Amino acid sequence: MITIVAEHDVKSDSLKEALEIFDKVTETSVKAEGFISRQILVSKKDSKKITTITTWENQEARDKWRENHSKTRTQASIDALFTHELAQTYEILKSVAV
Known about the structure:
alpha+beta
């Protein structure tokens, strides 16, 4: 399994639009083969700082979804909403849930 942790700094006047994009991305993700889970976290100190944590069965499943998803959005629309985006991919070594 892999998890992508993505940090987003939303432009101050774009929070509503950014949250709508996160909802749309989540809608397409849950339908994708290999999707496991997604969390959208909003900083308690600064609501313009949003982190998403998305888990996939493997890199191939995520890449396939990303290829299909990237055809439906433009980078210009993303750039208009965020001042900063950083994503890191992690391999899950251990997972514990209660």
